[in-house]
């Protein structure tokens, strides 16, 4: 990362749940840009692909290279179904993370991250990154171990302030016992430290590992300065600056405007404008994301001192993405015809962060679909940890059944408008159970579709997207 001549002009965003799969990341990296695997709840995606019979045999081939075969065998024995489960059969859910995950869940998390990174890196030597959400913190010590065992080059992470990541990846690279402190809502208990001893778990020393670079995803000059001031020099290799028009989770407005009910509205003001010359003075490369999928915006970013752009939606809708093909086709058609809208939903995500939602028939963007879905929290990726009356740690999610949330000390008002992003995003990747409607996230700007497609029915590849952006 130190040599500016080797920096990519384009970082492909780590989108949704498996929208940025290994195939897309591998394709983009082989084309000379930075491909990114979405590492969010990969254990759930991996288990369902195995239950489908591992089409193409890719996952089993990757696991055949895993340095601890008995761990890979445990995962395959638990989830692989020869020939796949019958169509329409509900998937068996992967175990849900707690502060004391089972050995099977740890094995599944490590193996899934290993396999996706291994496949993304197969056949070339160009850098590949993996993206995580700081908010989804319980798997970090295991997920990063798996990714680093496969030789991941770069870690990107947003949806929080991931100051613990540099020390975590340093210690994984050294084969040490690693830890990550996760927040707990409470008066006496405010955090819990997840610890993992890889040597003890695997029954042997880790192979020699490289330390990957770390690129936080941030939204302000303040956050950039926090990383520079609080971390030792060399901890961070660059920044991705995401503006509020980017897809997925957005940073909340610094000075929110409230509606008549006192709820924040998705309006961003002067305090949310990034001073790019100040970012450039920090001396680290940075990329700008959020409505930058055009040659003109790339040129503008370079003029501001950026190394390039991060682009998500343009890759989410290309043929190599893992979005459900029917959803991808509908989105492209509506976008090309100028009939697609994307709203910033301040409530839908249980994290409390604003979340971009594309308006599409049959998804929970529609009020009747949202209302008719049976509230259930059976994936647990976005649960909040809280202190129970007996001092133990409990788990609750504002997207779960209201009575259950209230019985766990939550406020019923906090459940209004909340949805299940876990199940919705898994369904968008074509791996949901039949009763779970999708939720599609995209950035505000999809004007690139009319420039890269010849008609509403046409398609395009990741190569087409890169050639357009660099044109």
Fold and architecture overview:
Strands 1-12-11-8-7-4-3-2 form an eight-stranded parallel sheet. Strands 5-6 form a two-stranded antiparallel sheet. The chain has a single domain, classed as TIM Barrel, CATH 3.20.20. It has 471 residues and is α/β, with parallel strands linked by helices. The protein starts with 9 loop residues before the first strand and ends with a helix.
The CATH topology is what?
TIM Barrel
Quote the beta fraction: 5-15%
Number of domains: 1
Tally the beta strands.
Answer: 16
Task: Please tell me how large the radius of gyration is.
Answer: 21 Å
Helix content: 25-40%
Q: How confident overall, as mean pLDDT?
A: 94
| Morphology call | globular
CATH top-level class = Alpha Beta
Q: What is the number of helices? A: 18
Please list the strands of the largest sheet in the order they lie side by side: 1-12-11-8-7-4-3-2
What kind of sheet is the major sheet? Answer: 8 strands, parallel
CA distance, first residue to last residue: 24 Å
Looking at the overall shape, the CATH architecture is: Alpha-Beta Barrel
- State the secondary-structure class: alpha/beta
* Uncertain residue segments: 1-5
Keyword list:
alpha/beta; TIM Barrel; two-stranded antiparallel sheet; 18 helices; 16 strands; 14% strand; globular; disordered N terminus
Q: Layout of helices and strands, plus pairs?
A:
Layout: E1 10-12, H1 22-30, E2 35-38, H2 42-51, H3 58-63, H4 69-79, H5 103-121, E3 128-133, H6 140-149, E4 154-158, H7 165-173, E5 178-183, E6 191-196, H8 198-202, E7 213-218, H9 221-230, E8 239-242, E9 257-258, E10 264-265, H10 276-281, E11 286-289, H11 295-303, E12 308-311, H12 313-316, H13 325-336, E13 342-345, E14 355-358, H14 367-372, E15 384-387, E16 393-396, H15 402-407, H16 421-428, H17 448-452, H18 462-470
Parallel strand pairs: 1-12, 2-3, 3-4, 4-7, 7-8, 8-11, 11-12
Antiparallel strand pairs: 5-6, 9-10, 13-14, 15-16
